[in-house]
Design brief:
The chain is α/β, with parallel strands linked by helices. 45% of the residues lie in helices and 7% in strands. The strands form two sheets. The chain has a five-stranded mixed sheet with strand order 5-4-3-6-7, with helices on both faces.
Amino acid sequence: MSRRKKKPTRRVAVPIEQLNAIVERTRTEPLAEADHATLKAAVDTLARLTEELETKTTTLERVRRLIFGPRSETTDTVLGKDQTDATPANPEDKASATTDGDTPRKPRQGHGRNGAEDYPRAPRIPVPHATLKHGDPCPEPGCDGRLYRQRQEPAVLVRVTGVAPLQAQVYELERLRCGLCGTVFTADPPAGVGAAKYDESAAAMIALLKYGCGLPFHRIQRLEQALAIPLPATTQWDVVQQAATRIAPAGYELIQQAAEGTVLYNDDTPMRILKFTAEARAEALPPGAKAERTGVFTSGVVAETLNGPVALFKTGPCHAGEHLAEVLDQRQDPTAPIQLSDALARNTPGDHATQAASCIPHGRRKFVEVYEAFPEEVAFVLETLRPVFRTDQQAQQEGLSPAARLLLHQEQSGPRMQALHDWMARQFAERLVEPNSGLGQAITYLQNHWEKLTLFLRVPGAPLSNNLCERALKKAILHRKNSLFYRTLNGAQVGDRFMSLIHTAELHQVEPFDYLVALLRHAGAVALEPAAWMPWNYTAALARLASEATDPAPD
């Protein structure tokens, strides 16, 4: 059944004074067409709100979106510009006309369908022609030609079938009993079948569903039960807990790799631990933290290293800055890394020396929030910052080095940021803005953190936003929305370890399932040399083990 796309509702801002005036005019004169449309829209809005409020599942966020529309902070959306009319004067800017630095999306070929190349692990099954072969005469009437095998790629047919995430095989091992002595002889299981009930691939799949996709254990249990595979939630926990111990060396190595990063992003999000005793909380508190602290957070650190990005998660009473300080305790490089976060004091890594940068979108958002009250002023700020994001996008698309990117920003973004700085100073100097107003507070935020916000104009490689870490934290948020909590601190640590390995693999475009299986099946080798089993190089370690297994032993 085709689904017809619902036409978005056009938002109309009508002051309450205008509605009152329309109501008063109805007393003495007929209602004009424009007044009728305005009054009808107001009545429809009231009816819709009443209907929503009578629904038990309605949330404040749903009501907010109903009244104010979807949350979007792009300049064109905030300023109410029509996307079809906002055509740049420069034809080269058309691709990014509707974004503020995000990569422009190009329409996909094939209407979004996936081709055979999108299934790299699907087995390739050659299918010969049933009646014809190479060299046969052409079966077409009146044709004397011969058939030749096509040298191009064969015609492909992708067949997708459904299978259970976890499957079971029952091996019936024959048993023979001696009739005289009573000894029982049992057949050995097939080669490659271990004695453990749950294979390493089962542990990897459960961990991926739970900590990578956000499925709670009880939902996995119901899913497998519907597929005739009993898998209790308690059993799933036992499996992933044992697996987490085996992959611990790889998790510790991730911390070592992140500690040497050149750029470190950090942030945190609230989390809940159900059984968190006072003794466990006191033991988990970082040094110097107040004993009465009650908050629980999942903090994320994303590090840009020489080997690529590394993601770390930690759940407990520590803030993002305290987590980052623990990571930097392992750092061997004496140079101070770039550290990007929002401007909260709890994001700073204590006494560790860093080149602190602040997230520009956080400051920009404060202007977006007051657009209705100060449309002209906010429009100036957004239009000034838009080219800065586009310049950064240009540097990324052209693959510029950090030094070349710095020069590009100094040439193109420097004058724009200076113009914004001068404009803000003039607002207060000429008393055009009340400092305690929403706009005044937004300007004060930028002024107070101007050095950190403009670090990208002075230091090579300094980023503009903390989006990389915020996207990583969505994994923890997905877990919180579905599972609601961790039961114990130990459960949180298991989840953090798997999330760190899974998301780091995803950042390197490596299949997390294949990576986790490799770690679990070669846990001994991982423990001996964990640095060789990172997402960016574990395939080389697998190839080396396979080569050693096939090479004959020296005499």
